[in-house]
Write a structure and sequence with these properties.
By secondary structure, the chain is of the alpha/beta class. The chain has helices at about 20-30, 45-50, 50-65, 85-95, 100-110, 160-165, 170-175, 190-200, 220-230, 320-340, 355-360, 380-385, 400-405, 435-445, 450-455, 465-475; strands at about 1-5, 5-15, 35-40, 110-115, 115-120, 125-130, 135-145, 150, 180-185, 205, 235, 240-250, 250-255, 260-265, 265-270, 275, 305-310, 360-365, 370-375, 390-395, 410-415, 420-430. Helix 1 packs parallel to helix 10 and helix 3 crosses helix 8. Its cofactor is FAD.
Length: about 475
């Protein structure tokens, strides 16, 4: 192996997904020299195996479902989706798994890219094993940033290795529609992929160990999504665990704890995530390999003055947009410390504090219906000791919803802190509600008083008029 001389940078970033790219963008904008290390494709999980391909698969399914709810249009969209066209469109959105455009972007901001596997090798030092056997040694004057993301976590089940199950990667990159698909799990990946592949023609069976789908949202979110999946022809079984799996020829067989035998062509396990930190040299700086990294609100690893962990690896909020938000915070904090400028640590909503990770995390689940939430659920708010009231609205009562879709079904909830009269959380479920959630994020993050929200007048007739119904519900209770 050929080793180069040590090269010094102000900042070294491990991982060139959206999070690492955003850290590099912010540190370069501050005038700091920055190196980025990536072992796979520049652009990361989101660009090639998660956000982008999954939404490219889901968009035709959602658009068709919406069209079928519009009088005068539904008869024109009764046929099946053109699966090859959908998959080709997905391939276009992932740039056919080529990262030339992302590399050009890094070049454009002036960051240096190192291809290969990067590992910590003591404080402020990173070694990179390149694809052709070369070995680079990088040192960081100010910060090393770990933004290597997470990977699918597979359960320890008899026969699983031989079955070669799908994870989220295979589910979003498959080049053919399986005739039968088993989806194990009830979270975001499970519900979105069940929605997408059912719409593309798969006979889908969803096996959920818990009581329902989307357990981290308000209970009605999972109930409405499960109802819609069943109406679309999926078999959704709750309270069901997989005890073993085998592959008999081309057929996957899943055995459940209740003794059922379910056959399929493929099986997707969407049962959790693990940090990609097991081979990063964490032990060389006194940290546990394979662990989530504990950080403060500036994203600095607790106990370190130079190591940062941004995105999934810190386990604060496993969402691309939240990781990019953290990247902006971390980049600003690194730049301030490098310049000797005091951090705004006294301001919980300041430029150097990722406060939204605790108070205002938004998420959209692109199922049919969509489910969108920000902040705390009712149960979370009560568990945290807040004195709260939940206000619920059947979204079919909103004029704009009825125009959006004939027979519109959906529900909204806002959780009000009664002592401060601000919103702690908002949840919407229904067609098209993903576009409503940013208004809720502003209300929650901005701690906008209920009295002021009365003066944010929703346009008529739009689905956003649900805000008026929620506020009336609070006033009239």
């Amino acid at each position: 192996m050929t080793e180069t001389e040590s090269i010094a940078y102000d900042v070294v970033v491990l991982g060139a997904g959206p999070v690492g790219e955003n850290v590099a963008d912010r540190t370069r904008a501050a005038g700091l020299s920055t190196a980025v290390v990536e072992s796979e494709l520049v652009g990361g999980e989101c660009s090639y195996w998660a956000c982008m391909p999954s939404k490219a698969l889901l968009r035709p399914a959602i658009a068709r479902a919406d069209a079928r709810r519009v009088p005068g249009l539904r008869q024109s969209v009764q046929g099946p989706l053109d699966a090859p066209a959908v998959l080709a469109h997905r391939d276009y959105y992932v740039s056919h798994w080529k990262d030339d455009g992302q590399i050009a972007w890094l070049d454009g901001i002036g960051a240096d890219l190192y291809r290969g596997h990067g590992r910590l090798d003591g404080p402020r030092r990173v070694t990179v094993e390149g694809p052709d056997g070369e070995r680079h040694v990088l040192t960081a004057r100010h910060a090393v940033v770990v933004s290597t993301g997470s990977r699918a976590l597979l359960p320890d089940l008899p026969g699983l290795a031989q079955v070669k199950p799908w994870t989220s990667r295979e589910a979003t990159s498959a080049h053919a529609v399986p005739g039968r698909l088993i989806v194990v799990g009830g979270g975001v990946v499970a519900t979105e992929m069940a929605t997408a592949w059912r719409a593309l023609g798969s006979d889908v069976t969803v096996l959920v160990r818990g009581k329902g789908l989307l357990p981290r949202m308000e209970p009605f979110a999972g109930e409405l999504v499960a109802e819609a999946l069943q109406e679309a022809g999926a078999d959704v079984r709750t309270g069901t665990s997989v005890s073993a799996v085998t592959r008999e020829g081309s057929t996957v067989v899943a055995l459940t704890d209740s003794g059922d035998r379910i056959e399929a062509d493929e099986i997707l396990f969407a049962t959790g995530r693990a940090p990609r930190t097991d081979d990063l040299g964490l032990d060389t700086v006194g940290l546990e390999p394979g662990s989530w990294l504990d950080v403060d609100d500036s994203l600095q690893v607790v106990g370190s003055e130079w190591l940062y962990a941004v995105g999934d690896v810190n386990h604060r909020a496993l969402l691309t947009h939240q990781g990019k938000y953290q990247a902006r915070i971390a980049g600003a904090a690194i730049a301030a410390r490098a310049a000797g400028v005091p951090l705004l640590e006294t301001d919980p909503w300041g430029a150097h504090s990722a406060t939204a990770d605790r108070a205002a995390v938004p998420q959209v689940v692109f199922t049919d219906p969509e489910a969108a939430a920000v902040g705390l659920s009712l149960a979370e708010a009560e568990a945290a000791g807040h004195r709260v009231r939940a206000v619920d609205v059947d979204m079919s009562s909103v004029a704009g919803a009825g125009l959006y879709a004939d027979g519109y079904r959906g529900r909204a909830r806002m959780v009000v802190d009664l002592d401060r009269e601000i919103l702690l959380g908002v949840t919407f479920v229904g067609p098209g509600v993903g576009e409503l959630i940013h208004s809720a994020s502003i209300a929650v993050a901005g701690e906008v008083p209920i009295g002021r929200l009365w003066h944010a007048v929703p346009s008529y007739p739009t689905v956003s008029e649900v805000w008026l119904r929620l506020l009336e519900g609070y006033r009239d209770a």
